[in-house]
Amino acid sequence: MTQNFRSSHFHMQSHRAPQPLLFERCCGLPITGELVLRGFSGNRCTGFGLKACVQSPKDNYSNGSFGLNAKGPTLVRRPQLLNSVDIDLVDGIDRRFSSSVHEEPKWGNPLTFHEFSSRDKLVVAVDIDEVLGNFVSALNKFVADHYSSHHSVSEYHVYEFFRIWKCSRDEANIRVHEFFKTPYFKTGIWPIPGAQSTLLKLSRFCHLSVVTSRQNAIKEHTLEWIEKHYPGLFQEIHFGNHFALDGESRSKAEICKSLGASVLIDDNPRYAIECAEAGIRVLLFDYENSYPWCKTECGNLPPLVTKVHNWEEVEKHLASCVLP
């Protein structure tokens, strides 16, 4: 989702009973329609909504297109979308899936909040890698096994891998994209402890969206991973397409501004400073004080940046934003 959003919109709705797939088309022209994508488990329905930049059927479909292919009952058709894409997940919290990550709060009783209306919720943007899942450790294992480049995670003092691996920037980008094709990436990234259970609680008073620097090339797998480990928790998913082999990129500050996000949760000090300078509060996530890149790049952090070391601290800080 790296380009301008002067686009037709697909809007998603959640339904209690099966509905036909609606797709209005005006031949040869840009289209506006409603695409209903649904899934069923028992008597409960889940759904995806897609906002897409859609072109004429005569347009070149090889330019910037990608297919969304979620496994299981979530989607009833594999649509081909063009160019920038925002994915809206608006089915809310489906508590049946919360057992997919077996987590229990480690401290006290959970905070209690009244139900917030959608417009009153705090808009929070959440990074993926090292905030929701352990990307670096999986990548580090791949590089060791395939390139005989042996490092510990403690050596990753910057989030610029070519500096750690002692290779060119282009070579590092190629290695990362090779990693994307392997089981190290596809099945080797696990949720950060405490994230799923905390986000479930936060969803009562926060409008949660993903803002990731991940590349367009791994959109499809990223969506599947999020729906597997964090089902129904995020309203929107935005890709910055940073460090990509092709395509335009979009800064996290720009994405957060477009969302109206008040808070970003991220592990990268550079993004934290960038967003703080744009007036966005940042919780800089350094899980159990174990991320070296969170230390060497920090220096004097802006007042809007606060260090947190686990998801319990995230919950406390966000609760302080809404509690009287």
Automatic annotation (TrEMBL):
<dbReference type="Pfam" id="PF06941">
    <property type="entry name" value="NT5C"/>
</dbReference>
<dbReference type="InterPro" id="IPR052419">
    <property type="entry name" value="5_3-deoxyribonucleotidase-like"/>
</dbReference>
<dbReference type="GO" id="GO:0008253">
    <property type="term" value="F:5'-nucleotidase activity"/>
</dbReference>
<dbReference type="GO" id="GO:0009264">
    <property type="term" value="P:deoxyribonucleotide catabolic process"/>
</dbReference>
<dbReference type="InterPro" id="IPR023214">
    <property type="entry name" value="HAD_sf"/>
</dbReference>
<dbReference type="InterPro" id="IPR036412">
    <property type="entry name" value="HAD-like_sf"/>
</dbReference>
<dbReference type="InterPro" id="IPR010708">
    <property type="entry name" value="5'(3')-deoxyribonucleotidase"/>
</dbReference>
<feature type="active site" description="Proton donor">
    <location>
        <position position="129"/>
    </location>
</feature>
<protein>
    <submittedName>
        <fullName>Uncharacterized protein LOC103492406 isoform X2</fullName>
    </submittedName>
</protein>
<feature type="active site" description="Nucleophile">
    <location>
        <position position="127"/>
    </location>
</feature>
